[in-house]
Amino acid sequence: MKICIAGKNDIAVNALYYVINEYDADNVIVVLNRNDSGKDDWQKSLKNAANELNIKTCSLEDIYKISDLYFFSLEFDKIVKTEKFKTDKLFNIHFSNLPKYKGMYTSILPILNGENETGVTLHKIDNGIDTGDIIAQKNFHIGINDTSRDVYFKFLENAFILFKENFAKILSNEYSSKKQPQVNSSYYSKGTLDFKNIKIDFNKTSFEIHNQLRAFMFKEYQLPEINGIKVEKSILTDSFIGYNCFKEKESEFIISGIDGYKISVQKQKLAGEM
Asked: Class of 2-188 per CATH?
């Protein structure tokens, strides 16, 4: 039996360490994402972890011919074609509460849409995009001031818990699965959002403005701007300050929407600022 961890970031690295502690490390392999530099940064590198643990690195083509293979996709960046494998033991953890939010931007879109909950889903891999049968899910709360970065880290934490809870069941074939319902199913492609043209619509309620701002607050990728100034935190309050207010202060913007509730939007702190 071979176990393959394919993917990136803390979820893939933590899963790898867990698997080699629970299973024979000689039969564990990894498949890397294309952009894995081999260096730990704000996220751990699967390539670096595999090198340190002396775990064999393979390509997808290398593992197609392995018949007794358990394949786990954990933030993997390649489309998996099931017919190329000799095994049907193909699994993925998707960062959403399927059937909602198949595809891309699962840390951003729930915030934009005003959701207060999301989750992670362990499912079988089929030839659709995040459409496979569901094995298990774990939901969590989206805080009113959580950014997309905050949500992503909650995804990582809960996905690892979900992996640990179900790993032994999968290896022993003691799990069940169910088909995804068509109701409440949604999908978002890469072209759904244009990160080069992020515009905040201030002619909205304070809640909607707040959601637009925090949805794009992920400092390793992008930050939204107000009057050309990057902002990194948005705090929605229940204080009424008047309709459509806009004030700029040294370290923040004070804003309200059409319903008058105060939003405190913190400017990005530059290097060296306290």
From this structure: alpha beta
